[in-house]
Amino acid sequence: MVKRAVTSTIVFLLLVLSILNYPSCAEEKNVEIEKIVSLAPSNTEILFALGLGEKVVGVTDYCNYPEEAKRKEKIGGYSTVDIEKVVLLKPDLVLAAYGNGEEVVKRLKELGLNVAVVSSKPETCIEDTLKEIKYVGKITGKEKEALSLYEEMENKIKEITDRTRDAKKVRVTHICWHEPIYVAGAESLQEDILEKAGGENVFSDKKGWHTVSLEELITKNPEVIIVSSGAGMGGEEDVAYNYILEEERLKSIDAVKNNRVYLIDADIIDRSGPRIVDALEDVAKFIHPEIYSENAQ
């Protein structure tokens, strides 16, 4: 189980640290879309949220939400896409992401498939996710549904930021792995979540996902530590969370001393999909429990 968690985390970190140079928009072919293959969990969640679940015929090994996605044909991982299987599914549209790799996208296009790359680089803010939802809606004929989802998410974001805007900023970090320690730095989707939730990212001096030493974490002394569950993308054991709680050298950190180390579902905070607003709300509650307490006005 731990071996599986370690493997999935290595895959995750390789993806978020990669920035590929292929365009985000595919040649949009004027075809009726009846069969879709998704090459990323975030894409899969967007498709189902737009009511396109029945048209999804293939997904990655990591696509586990909603429950129905688990029953779809598996076409491999991010960088290990089984191209032959994708072709055999005869999709009208293949939804790719930056993590799939330039060669995979190029090969699928060479084979005559209609490929749309939803994100050509790691997202840097929640607004990127909202734009991706509208883009998927546009190329699948679900613009009305996409706009509805967009507005619903925007309203939820505003509701949360209105509550946290005037609250005292709390020093916080988001950790997804511990060997080595990986934290969310500047220009990352996770930093945007931390800040919108009323936090101050102690590692804003780092860019993107970044490794830090144990000493750096101790020196930054965050008041709140938020740790991704499992190991990201399918890991079952909360090894990073357990490490933060049990490592003796971290006992001096305020977050550890004051029992403010929180576990968050890796899938909702690490995926650029509709559930990102759920991650924002969870983080806001972790950082500012006083605002969300029953006695809060």
TrEMBL record:
<dbReference type="InterPro" id="IPR002491">
    <property type="entry name" value="ABC_transptr_periplasmic_BD"/>
</dbReference>
<dbReference type="Pfam" id="PF01497">
    <property type="entry name" value="Peripla_BP_2"/>
</dbReference>
<keyword id="KW-0732">Signal</keyword>
<keyword id="KW-0175">Coiled coil</keyword>
<dbReference type="GO" id="GO:0071281">
    <property type="term" value="P:cellular response to iron ion"/>
</dbReference>
<dbReference type="InterPro" id="IPR050902">
    <property type="entry name" value="ABC_Transporter_SBP"/>
</dbReference>
<feature type="coiled-coil region">
    <location>
        <begin position="143"/>
        <end position="170"/>
    </location>
</feature>
<dbReference type="InterPro" id="IPR054828">
    <property type="entry name" value="Vit_B12_bind_prot"/>
</dbReference>
<protein>
    <submittedName>
        <fullName>Cobalamin-binding protein</fullName>
    </submittedName>
</protein>
<feature type="domain" description="Fe/B12 periplasmic-binding">
    <location>
        <begin position="35"/>
        <end position="291"/>
    </location>
</feature>
